[in-house]
Structure formats: C-alpha cells, structure tokens
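Justification of resources, computational component.

The compute hours requested in this renewal are based largely on the per-chain cost of generating structure records like the one below. Each record pairs the submitted sequence with a full structure-token output. That output is archived, and it is also reused by downstream analysis tasks.
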Amino acid sequence: MNVVTVGELSHCALGFYGGHWSPDARSILAHGYGGSFHMWKNIGVSSDNWQPQKVPSGHFAPVTDITWARYGEYMLSVSHDQTTRIFAPWHNQHPQSNGDSWHEIARPQVHGHDINCAAIIQGKGNHRFVSGAEEKVARVFEAPLSFLKTLHHATSEKSSFPEDVQADVQVLGANMSALGLSQKPIYVNATHEVQDNPGNDGLDTLESVPDAVPVALTEPPIEDQLAWHTLWPESHKLYGHGNELFSVCCDHEGKLVASSCKAQSATVAEIWLWQVGSWKAVGRLQSHSLTVTQMEFSHDDNLLLAVSRDRQFSVFKINRRGTDEIDYNLIESREAHKRIIWACSWNPFGHEFATGSRDKTVKIWGVEKTSSVKQLLTLPPFSSSVNALSWVGLERQRNHGLLAVGLETGLLQIWSLQLERGDDSIPTGVTAAPIIRLDPFMCHVSAVNRLAWRNRENNENCTSLQLASCGADNCVRLYEVTVD
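The structure output for this chain reads:
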C-alpha cells in the first residue's frame, strides 16, 4: 500500500528522474528534469510527517550573463537553461556561523528561449531588469510586491516593511502564460473568479495553466516555490532588432538602455538606445559590421563603449538635453586587436577603458580631451582567449583600481592598475601588476562568460570586495577579495 506521497504534482516539475534514501531512511533526495534537487525529511515522532527541505539550486546550462542590483543587494544571472535567477545573502539563517549564507531567492523569468544577456536598470525606483534571448525582442521585468517583501526579509534586520512601497507597487506577482513567453501580472487586490466550463470535463489543457500563488517568503525558498511562485511580471517588450539579442547594458542614472543583436552586416549590427520609462527607441548607433559582443556606459554616463566581432571598438559621445531627447556622435572607432574582442570595462574614476580579445591580450586605452583615443598599455599575453573583464576602483586620489580578467580556460586573474596623469589630468601611462592568480580548483572548468564586481555604496577604501563570475560550466561563483 502507498503510505506516503512526496512531491508536487504540478505541471512545472516535469517528473523526477531518480530518488535516493538517506542511510537512516528518514530523508529522500530526488532530482528532476531541470537538474534540480528535491529533498523531503520525516520530522514526525509517533507518525510519519514528511516535509520538503532546502537544498542547493543553480543553473543547468551555460550561464551567459551576470549583473548586480543597484546597491549590491543581490546578483541576477541568466542562462541557456531559459531561466533568470536571483541569488542573495540571507541574514540570520545560521546564527552560529560567520557571514551570510547565499540562496536562490527568486526565479523572475522562466522563458521559452535560451537567455543571452541581462542588465539591471539602475537609477531610482523599483527593481527592474531587461533581458535578451534567442528572439528579436528585449523584455523588461518589474519586481512585484512579494519579491520586495522577500528581499526585505532576506537582507534586513528590521522586521517592519515600509508602507509607502506597498502603496506604490500594486503587482503581487506573475503568472506563466500557456506558451511560456510572456508573464502576466497578478494584482494585489485581484479577485479570482472560478468559471465552470462543462465542456472541459475537468481535464488540464494548455490554456488552463494553474495560477501561481505569490507570497512573501520568510525563509529561503525550496524548488517548487522558486519555479512557480517567484516570477516577475513583464512590463514592456522592445521591438526593433533583426536577429536574436546578444548584449544589453544600462547607464548609471537609469535613463538609457543599449542593446545589440547577432549580426553579419552593418545594418543589423546597429546598437539601439531605449529610453527608460517611455521605452521609445531614441537612437540607432552605427559603427560595426558584425555582432557587438559587449557594451558599457562610462561612470559619468557621457560615453558609450562597444566592442565587436569585427575586432574594433567604438566610443560614442552621449549628449543629454534638458528634454527627453539625446544626441550622440561617434568619436572613435578603431581596429584594436587581431581577433574578436569579447569584453570591455571602464575605469570607474575616469575615461580609461580595457578591452580583452581572443588574441589573448588585454589593452588599456584612454579617451583624451580632444576626443581622440590613445593606447596606454598592453598587458603581457595570457594563456588563452580573454572572455571577460571587470574594473573596480579602489582609491580615487591615486587612480588605483583592480581589473579582473576571465579566460576561456575558466581561469581568473586580478591585476592592479595604477594610472599616471599629467598636469591637465590627461593619462600619460599605466602601471600594471598581477596580484592574484586564482587557484584552478576555485575557478570555472570552462570559459568564463562574465565578471562583475559587487556594487557598494562606497567601494573606495574597502578592504574587502566581492567578485561574481559565471561560465559555460553552468556555475555562478562568488569570490571574496581582500585588499591590503
């Protein structure tokens, strides 16, 4: 006789592929279609009482992009497993342990296409992000009330949730559509009307996907909650590109989003600029003839840097008028490397940037006041293709920063960069030295796809920094870097 049934009989589980007893026969561990673990434990004393338990979770396909929330509260990663996931430290989980334990606290997007890129929309207001997948549309998502409350539980020692946020955000969560592409909002005061449909005979059809039940979580969620009840509603679609999206970025003020797609010609390789809020296309920047692989706004938002498969970088000047209109002009485009340029990153303290290429080199460049770009330094050749770069500032007075370099072999290095400036603040040179080569056992086992330093209120004079990385080995990794 069947004594106990464990597991959720929902359409999103797609069945279990195997199960395993613990040695004391009081726990069962199962794994599902998406590589996810599920565990149940018998916590009953006199009678059986099987309850789901927390288990590690993560992506099950290459992780293509990673980005930090505005103030570093959480990191958001996207993957070819067609999900977007949010990881955050959860306070007070283990009072006896030092530091916070990190958990996946939400899965805002579960999609029908492989997701290639994402960017958190900076600036004030609610948490939002834009993502691009193997489709021609970029999608904008906005955090629902249930997520804001969960994040508050996870990251705040205070128990009371601010009331003004509750008044501003009227969306409680989101429901998955039948085809798994658009996510529809569930409003705070929505009433559920049950309509009897006699022609259906109670059978599940594609159109009758069960409703999600978004709730504020007071402890880290389990797989069933993540997969179904932590979706974010989609607020806008951005139409314009001719091919599947490849890269997106947002400026630091939260006013512009730039996007690019896979391209074999100059017309398709345009960078589109979108205005945050109205979501109108306000610019189409032409400079490259093949896919733009990465873009980044300078930290004062005056310049946009793009690098491409055509071995060139381009720097655009962005002029914001008092109205909502912007002007832009190309100030430099140059063939910088012998192979594809995969990565770029700005110096947080100035108009210097780094480019990394498949030709195994990293080059440092400076934008001069005459709007010309000068090469300042080439780092010694690396052992394999440079796939990811991220520059963080340490001391503004000394123009001192760290550059994280991710390689195709999965290895990570951190370089110290010291800029020398002349009397007129124009960079005259760079002193570079490798300070950390991470142990291969700590690194990825295949290509690093993206690196991102954690944003803090004040990165300067920090003795401890955190670096997130993601790779083709399906992993998201977080490193603590101590600065002497």
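The mean pLDDT is 85. The first helix runs from residue 145 to 155.
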